[in-house]
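## tool: complex_structure
## caller: assistant
## args:
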Amino acid sequence: MREGKSALRLHPDAFGCGQPVFASLLPREGVSGSLFQAICVQAARQAMAEAGIDAASPRTGLVVCSVKGYIEALGHEDVTLAASARKIADALGVTTPPLVVSNACISGLAGMVEGRRMLLAGLYDQVVVVGAEVQSRFIVTGFQSLKALSDEACKPFDATRKGLNLGEAAAAVVISTSAGDIMPTHEQAASARPAASENYFSGRYPKSQFPDAIATLTRADAVWELVEGVIRNDANHISGPSRTGEGSYKALRYLLPLVDKEDIAFVSVHGTSTLYNDEMESIALERAGLLDVPVCALKGTFGHTMGAAGILESILSMLALEEGVVLPTRGFETLGVSRPVRVSAVEMRVTGNAFIKLLSGFGGVNGALLFKKRKAE
Amino acid sequence: MENLINELKLKVIDALNLEGMTPEDIENDAPLFGDEGLGLDSIDVLELIVLLEKNYGIRLATPADGKKVFQSVAVMADYVAANRTK
Amino acid sequence: MRTVNIPAGTSLTDLYREHVGDYPKFFKMDTACKLGFLAAELLVKEDPDRFVPREDRAVLVFSRSGSLADDRNYAATMEDFPSPALFVYTLPNTVTGEIAIRNKYEGETSAFVLERFDPEQILDQIVLAFQDRMTRSVLALWVDCPSDEQWEARGWLVDLQDLLPPEEHHCCHGQGGGGCCGRHHHDEGGEEHHCCGHHHEEGGEHHCCHGEGHGEGEHHCHCKENNKE
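## result:
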């Protein structure tokens, strides 16, 4: 991505939809059965191995995030996300009941919101959150009927943008509980947990068990805290975004008291490259007082990965901030929204230890996550 | 033309799930969109675009074209009469 | 807590005409949305200030089937003339959007898929939703609609107060268990009592609720002794 590469291609007749489709698609050679289930398992397994967690532990939770899952088998197999989640859980060796989050295009983000809450409530000590989307005739024809697709590489926030590109991906994180004031190695986190019998949660109490508990994601060189996550509905229209950016603004507003503005290195936005979405986000950013914060939109590199987007784009944002940069918004040339958003076609150095991930979806949903990098030892 | 107008009204009512409406409830020149009209929205425009293609073989490229053609049933009828391929 | 159930076989059009009647967008919805919409209507129709925008109510929908019924309906149009109106409903969360639009709920909306109707898992998620610091009530629905003719549709409206353990609040007269909620008044010996909603010990310090969210003179601390105002 830093070299400017893109996974988007023109596919002359993807899925037999009759028109060329500009998208980022995964290879399908040698795949039998559900590609969706396979990439969920692959991504989750890798994350779990890197985190060194016990899949079968009753303290391990699983959240699966997707919009349409295995929909291409409609009419032939059980395509419910429930059936897919069961297969994924079994393949991973997870023994707790999986939760599927299917909240339109914010599903991956919403899954992380749920994972964090489960940890702070003491329901689990670690949660695997995996989000994935696979394209199909179903989805492509649907977006075509909405006239939402561009037949060229998409251009977030650009004056000549004309629609989105679809993408495929799977992304997974392991979020764990750590006590708030110490460097959260696994051993230290383990000693901070109470015995299972004292599970506060059995009292159905809507508060965290540990006043100081935080949700963390541990990487090789850094530990990230998922400080907070929020979802807000526009209450306006079931597919078009609110013209005043109502839900996105409210989601941002919810997070702002939790961070110093100077510490926000960038906002990773939804940036689908539709006329309405990008304009709406620029209004929401203005209303939240964030116009002077750098912004990046990543869908110009791998398209709209729907259920994976919230997780994929958060991971890439963490990697970027570990390098002290905001990633380029590929496809952007000339500002085409009514507010002066700080979007850049090239990578820029940034300061600050925090970033916000912002997304929107059908059904009027908008979500935002606040991540902070903790000091590495 | 009368037949086409009536036919269009029936198809619009069906395509847009306008429950309980009859052709008599839709005036030929009444605006279809906006608060003064039937209050149709952006999804309805897209459905009407499909209606034109499915029934009359007319392809509109963008929703913006749609808004011009769907101003009223009368405008729609004129457009269909002039451009139908079925 | 309020609950509602819409049995399979109910005429949704009749239910709509009886309880709503003034929302023609109802007829554009797919079956799952109609069910969720009607269940929500039944749960909230008596709410005061019903259509005033609010950010403190979350809407959660649970199912096993997701949007399966509408997925099939859309797929049937996919071969020649894909229908945008059907496509926008091929999402489990659209029903939460419709409820939010109707009631101006600008708070959290979420959609989950479970392997089965699991009350424990549903209750867990409802309780987790209260971690949003603004959420004071949750409208939760189980709407499982594998086809347009078969469904299960239930709903619950849960207030934050419903979840607080009873031991923390006491009626001054020691009537615990279900105790004082700060909202409802209850009888004791024929006399109407209103609890202030604040934690206080019997025989110990008591605080009148005057000014704390109740109208002065309208609510009284139970105990006349040790009465602090």
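## assistant note: The interface with chain B takes residues 145-147, 237-240 of chain A (CB under 8 Å). The CA atoms of residues 167 and 303 of chain A lie 5 Å apart. Handing back to user.
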